Amino acid sequence: QAKNAGRNSYRLFDPALQADVETRAALETALRDAISEGQLALHFQVQVDHGGQALGAEVLLRWEHPVYGHVPPAQFIPIAEASGLILPIGEWVLQQACAQLGAWAEQSQTRHLELAVNVSARQFRHPDFVSQVCEALKQSGAPPTRLVLELTESLVLHDVADTVAKMQALRRHGVRFALDDFGTGYSSLAHLRRLPLHQLKIDRSFVQDIVIEPGDAAIVQTIIGMARNLGLSVIAEGVETQAQRLALQRLDCTVFQGFLFGRPQPLSAFETWLAQPPTPISLFATALAVPL
Ligand code: C2E
Ligand code: MG
Ligand code: MG
Ligand code: MG
User: Fold this and answer.
1) Are 240 and 260 in contact (CB under 8 A)?
2) CB 166 within 8 A of CB 129
3) % of the chain exceeding 90 in pLDDT
4) Contact at 8 Å (CB) between 194 and 157?
5) 99/94 Cα distance (integer angstroms)
6) Which of 104, 171, 198, 238 sits between 20 and 30 A of 179, alpha carbons compared?
7) Whose C-alpha lies nearest to ligand 1, atom 21?
8) Rounded to the nearest whole angstrom, what is the distance from the C-alpha of residue 283 to the centroid of ligand 2?
9) What pTM, to 2 d.p., does this model score?
10) Which atom in ligand 1 lies closest to the alpha carbon of residue 77?
11) What SS3 class is residue 289?
12) Which residue, among 279, 269, 226, has the nearest Cα to 251 in the 3D structure?
């Protein structure tokens, strides 16, 4: 008994835990002003087809605080979710992404590009979500068919009826949906079939060891087969090496994203990359040498 009490009191005054609570509180306070202080920015990570051509990019949010420096999304997105700050932040990301799509739509070299925007659960569940997306599209003149919204398995399965209704409402405008981090959750085929999805994103964890873990290769193969049967496109995320890309290509994966092709980068660097991508020859030469 005394031991238990001791453990509890220890836990209560655990300095590490206390620091964590304080950090979260400090970050939450700082995050409140991040938009108005101009500390948030979109980075763009290219998505390429089998020939190395850019299809578009995933939008990844970056927060640079004058004192805390670069705070990674893995740290501030959960705080934004818990505090509700994800609502204004998520809306800002959508507006910025749509503005970019609108600008790209005016140039013949860029009008084919798509942007994939991550949507968090709290944002998606908000009753105004559909009208928020429509408003962002209308204000910016972005072609709705160039906007892809990334949802996670846990998000879509939480309330399937609400999910399907919102997805269908946006589908009618031409907006498409990708299922992010696919394979890490518990989606059943029956549920997936009901969702008006366009794409599955194979989670980085399966891509990472695809060359050395036959089990991971089998999972990827199964996902690709399933996607094909459901009429869905597949993209592999987190592709870092040629060997991974080759293994994926052998399994008929045709769309890729990862450091091998490009890191998430600010708009100016991304547009420079677009104008002068690494030569398809150097990226894909090995594919020609290996029988597929
Ligand atoms: P995600 O949507 O699965 O995004 C992919 C993450 O993998 C990004 O991390 C990206 O930088 C990283 N990545 C891409 N290629 C590679 C690779 O080849 N190797 C490795 N090791 N990593 C790679 P990031 O930017 O730190 O974002 C982390 C997560 O934060 C995202 O995961 C997403 O869930 C969330 N997030 C980012 N931006 C937003 C946003 O605007 N809204 C919301 N709701 N969530 C966001
Ligand atoms: Mg994503
Ligand atoms: Mg992902
Ligand atoms: Mg992820």
Assistant:
1) yes
2) yes
3) 78
4) no
5) 8
6) 104
7) 238
8) 24
9) 0.91
10) 45
11) helix
12) 226
